[in-house]
Amino acid sequence: MNSQIAQHWNKMQEARAAYLDKLAEIPAHLLHTQPETGWSAIQVTEHLLFSETGTLGYMKKKSSGGWEVLEVTGQEQKSNGEALNNRLISPERYKAPSILPEPANSTSYDDILAQWHQVRLELEKFVLAIPEEHYDKLVFRQPIAGMLNVVQTLEFIGNHIHHHIPQLDRIATSLKK
Description:
It is a single chain. This protein has 5 helices and 2 strands. It has 177 residues and is mainly alpha-helical. It has a single domain, classed as Four Helix Bundle (Hemerythrin (Met), subunit A) (Up-down Bundle). β1 and β2 (146-149) form a beta hairpin. α1 runs parallel beside α5 and α2 runs antiparallel to α5. The radius of gyration is 17 Å and the shape is elongated. It starts with a helix and ends with a helix. The relative contact order is 0.24.
């Protein structure tokens, strides 16, 4: 794995581990309990799963015609990717893009972990198969930032997960009241 890809992959994996550690702090019988406003812990996790599943699906479809035909990242995409990631690492809260389905709050804890694990395995296989000379190709349309390359996409996934960890803290606090 290329060092740049490996760096973002590792950060993504660390973000997921930190998220799952935080999720484990919420008692199992409360994971589906919605606070007065907002999602339950399972709904947040479903949202992250939907996001990663959709991201992988988009990248597979976009690259299915061959990497050679995809556009190369330009300055606009670099700026948009930076802005997106800066937004995600800020404490600001944002509404989920409407392109993602509303989390149903119906997936069991075990099932959601298994599904997320499977998506990560598929994502790793996909990323490892990308020839290094195509890392700068625009392969994913993020709803806010527009087109991103694979490096930007991995950075987005990691920051997206970190962005939702404070949400789990808020949910846990509201459930204690």
